[in-house]
Amino acid sequence: MQATGPARSDAPRLGLSTASAAIPEAACSGGLALNHQPYELYSKANHITWQSLYCRNQELWARYANERFLEGLEYLRLPEDRVPRLDEVTAFLAPRTGFRAEPLSGYLPAFTYFDSLKQRKLPTAITIRGADSSDNASEPDIFHDVAGHAPMHADRAFGEALMAFGTCAHTAVELVSPIREPEEQLRRLTSLVKALTRFFWFTVESGLVRCGNVLKAYGSGLLSSGRAIEHAIDSPQVQRTDLNLDWVIHQPFETGRQQPLLFIVESFEHLLELTGTLEKWMRAGRLDHVSGGKPDVCAADLDSFLQVCETLQPSRLRSSRILPYPLSHRKRLAHRRLSANLS
Fold first, then answer.
1. Nearest Cα to Cα of residue 169 among 192, 198, 199, 201
2. Is the pLDDT of residue 17 over 90?
3. DSSP class of 212
4. pTM for the predicted model, two decimal places
């Protein structure tokens, strides 16, 4: 169903469930980003799902979440009985750390996502998981992004670490944009993005922090899932170790499963320091040949970096280069040749 204006009171309320939502075309801006949250489209079932998730996770957060998350949660005053309005989240978040909740209606490529963090934006899905998949969403939803991410964005040191991820993304562009051979450019970029993605996953998404003599969760993937947060802290099947940057960037992972290996930081100031070290390693060439394996780096993520690279090429170089194929076609050819070695 498409809408070209405000929803009519007698129109069916299909809701904004992740698996089935029909995003109104009129609400879209540029194809991926919404210029507002179409709050009137949330159904009663969507609000009930939020209420159920929030009620269940409150007890888990009290047991397993780190203190700064709990402080951020109290500061944000998220509603317990309904899907939150993103402008309300921003109203509490912006004065504290400068971050703003930005609504999304679709997939945001890697460079755009990391660049958003650099600009103190919190990319936020507007849909919410269905009641039948309430424990683990198949893809990020508003509960993951707001209840899982936003309270940590209220912490200043953590916010600075997020901005440093954006700096790393810009550094990757800076390093690969001068490379004139498309195949080598793609190979090196893939290695850099894979390393950055792994570091982000094992920290922001599934990280643990040492609080005195106990471990607490700060990763949003853990904090927004009932089974995952309990499994991360209590399960004897999980290996937990202090974060070693060299280990992390070479460590494969798969989404959609309970993680058998998790890494611990000493504090969020420590996380900020590690993110700065990652950027230094990029410049030193230490991320140019990371090990293969999961996650695969998709073409859309690579394109998001390469498109920025093209804008940085000197005009005289762009005009003098003989390009027998369009950029997108050359990237596809190079990607085919390299896919067996880079996956």
1. 192
2. no
3. T
4. 0.85
